[in-house]
Amino acid sequence: MSTNSPSSCVVTGGARGIGRGIAELMVARGHRVVIGDLDGRAAAATAAEIGAVAGLAQDVRDPSSHRLVVEEAVRHGELSAWFNNAGVGDDGALADLSEEQVRRLVEVNLLGTTWGTRAALAAFGAAGGDVVNIASLAGLGPVPGYSMYAATKAAVVSLSTSVNAETPRRVRVHALCPDGVDTAMLAAQDPSGLGSQLVYSGGPILDVSDVAAAAVALVGSRRVVRAVPGWRGGVVRGSALAPGLMQHAAGLFAAQGRRAMKRR
């Protein structure tokens, strides 16, 4: 394929929120974007609205769904970027989560990202490409109230760093770790829960556009892990060095978060 030929791109969970924001930016960059989403109608509608080449129903828990998305993408150009954005955000202490919630968190957030990464690596051409995995700041340190969600995102960060070290230099794997983002996922969480209160304690909630821009900026870079905002990433990484302190500090941060939520 000529180097002047258009390249294709896949965004999972791309019908709304961060995924839609990423897809819009990649379309603006000239990529032939394929959107996958559990809601196939929403994926098709979003694709039509933003100028993506296709919007498909995709359940990221199913490895075959990633292969079908690859088949569609390579019809439009050599695959050069893949964004594993699809995720779920069930909040709550581990003891309070149902077995179904635990299983869904692992299967969507971790296995979905795993299958997507494998599909992308197998489909990249001679020019290589970028896999950008949307993790979370919660994956960088202890976050009570988000224990299972944080565990899956920590695994995504670990997966990304390890796979990046396995791949040839022409292929890059990244993990983006944003703080709380103004999405339907955050809005659906329990405002009285410890996890939500800790999210709101960290300063302004991020806009989708800011996170999408950070994700797209990783394409072509050698940076493997990026936290957004960077200072908050430093705080969370610091807490990981002394996780026992979080037990004592969580109440103070939660109170700060409750005050922030009342001001919204």
List keywords for this structure.
single chain, 264 residues, alpha/beta, Rossmann fold, 7-stranded parallel beta sheet, 10 helices, 7 strands, SDR_fam, SDR family oxidoreductase, KR_dom
Largest β sheet strand count, sense and barrel closure: 7 strands, parallel
Q: What portion of residues is helical?
A: 40-55%
CATH class group: Alpha Beta
Average pLDDT confidence is 89
What general form does the structure show?
Answer: globular
* Cα gyration radius (Å): 18 Å
**Uncertain spans, ≥5 residues at pLDDT below 50?**
none
Could you give the distance between the termini? 51 Å
The CATH superfamily is known as NAD(P)-binding Rossmann-like Domain
What is the CATH architecture term? 3-Layer(aba) Sandwich
What structural class do the secondary elements suggest?
alpha/beta
- Domain module tally: 1
Helical segment count: 10
What is the CATH topology? Rossmann fold
Strand content: 15-25%
Protein name: SDR family oxidoreductase
Keywords: Oxidoreductase
Pfam family, one: adh_short
Family: Belongs to the short-chain dehydrogenases/reductases (SDR) family.
Give a written overview of the molecule.
The longest helix is centred in the middle third of the chain and has 25 residues, at 99-123. This protein has a 7-stranded parallel β-sheet with strand order 3-2-1-4-5-6-7, with helices on both faces. The chain is 50% helix and 16% strand. The chain has helices at 17-28, 40-50, 63-74, 99-123, 147-166, 184-187, 194-200, 208-217, 230-241, 244-263; strands at 7-12, 32-37, 54-57, 78-84, 129-134, 171-178, 225-228. It is globular. The chain has one domain (7-189, 205-242): Rossmann fold. Strand 5, helix 5 (147-166) and strand 6 (171-178) form a beta-alpha-beta unit. By secondary structure, it is α/β, with parallel strands linked by helices. The mean pLDDT is 89. It starts with 6 loop residues before the first strand and ends with a helix. It has 10 helices and 7 strands. It holds the Pfam family adh_short. This is SDR family oxidoreductase. Residues 7-179 form the Ketoreductase domain. InterPro entries: KR_dom, NAD(P)-bd_dom_sf, SDR_fam.
